[in-house]
Amino acid sequence: MSRWMPLSALSQYYNLPLKCFTFRDFQLAPTLEEYERIIGMPLAKSLPYLFRGQYPPWASMAKLLKVSELEVLWIRRNWNGLEGVPRANLEDRLYHLQQEGDWRTFMDIYGLLIYGIVLFPHLKDYVELAATDTFLAKRDMGENPVIAVLANTYCTLNHYYVRNGKVLRCCTSLLSSRVD
User: Against a cut of 0.85, is the pTM above it?
Assistant: First the structure.
């Protein structure tokens, strides 16, 4: 039995109007404290990440990837108003960094991929600037992304419930591991 089958089974009980999981005699809603434990990042140890109203400039992405800003502007994409970069471009960059032996940058981009694909998955094979902003806030300022992950979980559950009825397809394999 897959480790994630229970979570997949649980997703069918998500109740959109109540924004929780509803069973015969009780309701279950993951709390902030539970997410702190799941992710392994207590809020008491760092300030929470809160969106500041503006995503990082493309120059920040270029600095993170250690490429020119022109190269980042060339690979960036905009899907339905969500700006970001394709996963394939980030994976190509990882391959080159592995060949060069630049492990610090490799780990930064690998962390960004985890944030963009596992923690904040809005479009398949795409890392948007919102995930980049959250990742940089954690890496550079030590801000805790637990609140954003919890909010994104509910947003994702709501989105798929509205879009597909009660069918939910999700990736949670890294949610239970430490992502800092």
Answer: no
pLDDT digits over 102-126, tens only? Answer: 999 999 999 999 999 888 887 788 9
Residue 133 CA to residue 149 CA, distance in Å, equals 13
HSE value, Cβ hemisphere, 13 Å, CA-based, for 11? 22
- Nearest CA-CA partner of 144 in 34, 45, 31: 45
Pair (74, 24) in one structural domain: no
Biggest CA-to-CA distance, the chain: 57
Q: Which residue in this structure is represented by tokens 């397809």? A: 169
Residue 28 covered by a domain: yes
3-state SS, residue 151: helix
